[in-house]
Amino acid sequence: MLEPLHLKLSRRVAIAGRLRAACCLPVVVGCVLLGGIDNTHAAFVQFETINVSGFGDVPTETDYVPNVVFSENGAASFEALKAQAVAARTFAYYKMRIGGGIQNGTQDQVYHKPGRGWAQQVHFDATNATEGEILSIRNFTGNDILIASFYVAGAIPSGPTPVPNPFDPDPTNTEKWVTHTYPTDVLSGDNLGTPLGFIGTPTNPNWPNRGAKSQNGANFMGQQGISYVDILKYYYGADIQLETVAPTPGQPPLQLLKTLTDFELNDGYFGNATDFSIHNQNLGPATTTQRASSDAHDGAFSQRIDIDLDESASSSFLFHHNAGTDLAGPGNLFTAKREANLALQSLGSIGFWLMTDSIDLTVGLTLDDDGDGTEQSLFQDVIADGQWHQYQWSLEDPAIWSSALYDSGDGILGDSFTLDSIVFAGNQDSLVFLDDIFYQPPAFGPPPLIIGDIDGDGFVGINDLNILLANWNMTVPRGDTSQGDLAGNGDAFVGIDDLNVLLGNWNAGSSPPSELLANLVPEPMSATALLSLSWFALRRSRS
Q1: In angstroms, rounded to a whole number, what is the distance separating the alpha carbons of residues 380 and 104?
Q2: Average pLDDT of 82-109?
C-alpha cells in the first residue's frame, strides 16, 4: 500500500508549526490554451539568455532565474528555493519556445520589481544547485513535451501535510489554482492540470498543463526536509521528468561539476529502502542506509551504508543501492526508473566519493538508457584505508559498459540516461560511507557565480577590491559586476553598498595561487582604503 505523505513526513522530521507566507506574489498566467509543442527524445536546447519585457536579453542562469527566485519566493526554505528555480526556468523556457520572450510581472513571472532589490547569494546558490534543470512529460506517442510549470502563492498549510486545512490562511486567494497531483495518484492523461491553463481530456490532454505548485506549500515541504525533486513531483505529478538542457554546438556546458546528491539536507536520490531491488543477492536484514554527520567528504553529512551479508545463503553479496525520488508514483512505480531520476546527456563522466575500512569490496553503476534497457559498468576495487577516494566512470568509453545481466540493454549508451543504482559487491559484512554523487560534463563551463568575485577567478580578495576602488564613486552600467556594481540595487554606481557586499563575501571561494600572498600582504593603497572604507561602512550601517 502506498504510504501517505504525512507518514513519510513524520518519519523524517517532526512536524513544524504554522508557517508564515514566504511570498505573496501569485503567478497568474491566465486561462489560455497552452501550445502542445512536440519534441523527440532529443534534449531541450539551452537558452543562454531570456528575453524579458523592459529588460531585453538577460543571462539565464546568472541573472534571470536567481532574480525570479528572489522576487517570487525569496524567503522560502532552501529546497523550496531550488524547486522555485526549476519551475521558473521551465516556465521561461516554455515562453521562449512559444513566443520568444516573457513578461516581467504576475501575468508571467516577476523578474524584478522596482524598489525590491535583487537576488542574494542564497538565490544564486539555489539556481546553481539546479542549473539547467527543466521539467518535461512524455506523451502518448513517446514525445517529450516541455511543461508550463504554473505556480501561485497558495494557502499557508498548518500540517500535517502540504494540503491546507479548511481554516488555514490564504492571503492571496490562490489556493483554488493549486493541484496536489501526487497524493491523488494522477498520471499521464488523467492529470488534467490546473484551471490556470486549458483543461483537456484524459484521451486528449493539454500536455503542458500538469498542474500548479503552491509556493507556501513548497516552503512547508522544504522545512520538513523534503527534496526539491519531491516537491515538484508532489504538485506536477510523479511522471514528470526532470532533465538537463543541452548546449548547442560551440556552447560550453552549464556547469563544471553537477552534484546529484550531497546528503546535506536529505538523502536526495538515495533514500530508497535497501531491500527495494529484486536484483539484490544474499543481503541480511541488518542492511541499512542513513545520513551521517560523523564523516563527510565535503560539507557536514554523508550517507552511512551498513551491508549485512546473509552468510546462511552465500559467501558473497550484491547490493543494488537504487536511485530515485521518494515520491516515485503509486506503489513506487517509477523508483530506479527514468521518471524518478534526473536525465543527463551521455557525455563526460559520472561518479561519487567513498570511504571504508572494509576489504574486498567492489563498486559499479547501472544506468537506465532511455528506451533501451539498462547498462552496467565495469566494477572498480574500493580502497580500504579509511580515507575518501573518488570513483568515476567515463560515459564515452564503450569498453566500460555492457548490458545488465537482468535487462535488455545493448551495452551502448544512447543520447541520454538516468542513474539506476550504485552496486556494491563483497564477501563479508561491510561499512562504507558515500558522498557527493556527481556528473561531470566533457568540457569546462564558466565557474559558479560568487558575489564579490569581480575578476571572475572564483575568489573574493585583494584583486577584486582593487577593481572596486579603481571605479570608486563612478557610474557604471547597471549590474556590471566586472566594474564593481555588486549591490544589485539598480543604482549603477560604485560606492559603499557595493563595498559592503564585497566585504561581506571576503575570502569566499577557492583562493588561486596568484592571490595567496596578496591576501596576506595587500597593496598599500588597498590596505589603507580597506580600513578607512570599512570604518565608514560600519558607521553608516549603525546610523
Answers
A1: 51
A2: 96
Q: Could you give the CA distance from residue 52 to residue 96 in angstroms, rounded to a whole number?
A: 10
- What are residue 426's phi and psi, to 5 degrees? -165, 180
pLDDT of residue 524: 42
What are the sequence ranges of the domains in the chain? 23-244, 258-440, 462-542
Average pLDDT of the residues in 386-392: 97
Three-state secondary-structure class, residue 222? helix
Q: Specify the pLDDT at position 427.
A: 97
Residues in the chain: 543
Number of H helices, E strands in the chain: 10, 20
Cβ(226)–Cβ(266) below 8 Å: yes
**Cα gap 225→492, rounded to integer Å:** 39
Residue 60 pLDDT greater than 60, yes or no:
yes
Cβ neighbors of 183 (< 8 A, separation 6 or more) are 4, 5, 161, 163, 234
Report the CATH number of the 258-440 domain: 2.60.120.260
Q: How many CA atoms lie within 13 A of 248 on its CB side?
A: 4
DSSP state of 393: E
Question: To which H or E segment does residue 91 belong?
Answer: helix 78-99
Q: Is the pLDDT confidence value at 38 over 70?
A: no
By the 10 Å C-beta count (0-12 exposed, 13-18 middle, 19+ buried), 14 is classed as: exposed
| Region label for 331, one of left (φ > 0), alpha (ψ between -120 and 50) or beta (otherwise) | left
- As a whole number of angstroms, the distance between CA 345 and CA 323 comes to 17
Nearest CA to 34 out of 174, 199, 182, 184 is that of 199
Neighbouring CB atoms inside 10 A of 173's CB total 12
Q: Write the Ramachandran bin of 336: left for phi over 0, alpha for psi from -120 to 50, otherwise beta.
A: left
